[in-house]
Amino acid sequence: MTTRASRVGLDIGGTKTVAGLVGPDGAVLARRRMPTPARSGPDAVLDAAALLAAELLDAAGTGPVGVGTAGTLDPATGTIRYATDSLPGWSGTRVADALTARLARPVRVANDVDAAALGECWVGAGRGRRHLLLVAVGTGLGGAVIRDGRVETGARGTAGEVAHLPTPGAGRLRCGCGRYGHLEAIASGSGLSAAYTLATGVRVSGQAVADRAAAGDPTAQQVLGRAGSALGAALAGLVALLDPQAVLVAGGAAGALLPAATAAYAAELPAGWAGVPLLPAALGPDAVVVGAARLAMDSSAE
């Protein structure tokens, strides 16, 4: 059942927490934001998220609150299975139960990239399409699959995690999981940094690599080209596997990688899927909040 009322969506990340009041048309009507008190532990993070949400609840009726959070979670219980050190102690946190107790209303929880994909499917670059693959290229690499308008979670809540695909050209680069040769190790902000350091001995951020490439640094341009080509080729292969209507690329490093990724994607895409576009995501920093609110609006989106 779909409820046509405004809902509050929460985006809980390692750096910031954002609450948004989202209307039935997907417009963000109000926002609240604060730094995530990650080093103070899970209870402090949950208290901060609840405080932000509570400021918007009076305008959102009595319906559920939606949450998009960093970490791998059990979609049935809203409990974090695994999280990185960006949220210390977050693994094992019962996010849905804890926020339900704090807010006195139902809470529905998704991984943040899954929530972003749901938002893009609803009112973003994927609007009008029911089957999508979204890849989020930031410090790391995340992915999500939308199947018939719903998040495809898989058996363990991790469907769409493209980061650990074995990738040619990444053999000397270490993935966030600790192994070498994965897609995240080359096509992410950390991958750009590692590849540039390996080539030059100079340690800079992934953003700095993109900036140096734009300024004409040939090594940085080569690093970006390789990363984008690896991403585009991998996405073309995933299209044949997942058969989406479109592939969306989101995240802070997306713009730098898209030119080379688009060329490699077009070159590698099998003929049977020639009409499947590779598109930049459209919602930017609002994507998780919008998708989380959609999760709260529509029980069929779980």
Structural overview:
Pfam families: ROK. InterPro entries: ATPase_NBD, ROK. Belongs to the ROK (NagC/XylR) family. It comes from Micromonospora deserti. This is ROK family protein. The protein has 302 residues and is of the alpha/beta class. The protein folds into two domains: 129 residues, Nucleotidyltransferase, domain 5 (2-Layer Sandwich); 153 residues, 2-Layer Sandwich (Nucleotidyltransferase, domain 5), CATH 3.30.420. It is built from nine helices and twelve strands. It has a five-stranded mixed beta sheet with strand order 3-2-1-4-7. A five-stranded mixed beta sheet has the order 10-9-8-11-12, with helices on both faces. Strands 5-6 form a two-stranded antiparallel ribbon. Helix 5 packs across helix 7. It is globular, with a radius of gyration of 19 Å. The model has no long low-confidence stretch (mean pLDDT 94).
- How many strands in all? 12
Q: Major sheet: order of its strands?
A: 3-2-1-4-7
CATH class of the largest domain: Alpha Beta
User: How many independent structural domains?
Assistant: 2
Q: What separation lies between the terminal Cα atoms?
A: 11 Å
CATH topology of the largest domain: Nucleotidyltransferase, domain 5
Q: What fraction of the residues are assigned to beta strands by DSSP?
A: 15-25%
* Biggest sheet details: 5 strands, mixed
Q: Structural class, judged by helices and strands?
A: alpha/beta
Inertia-based shape: globular
- State the helix count: 9
Rg on CA atoms, Å: 19 Å
| CATH-defined superfamily of the largest domain | ATPase, nucleotide binding domain
Run of helices and strands: EEEHEEEHEHEEEHHHHEHEH
Unreliable spans: none
Indicate the mean pLDDT.
94
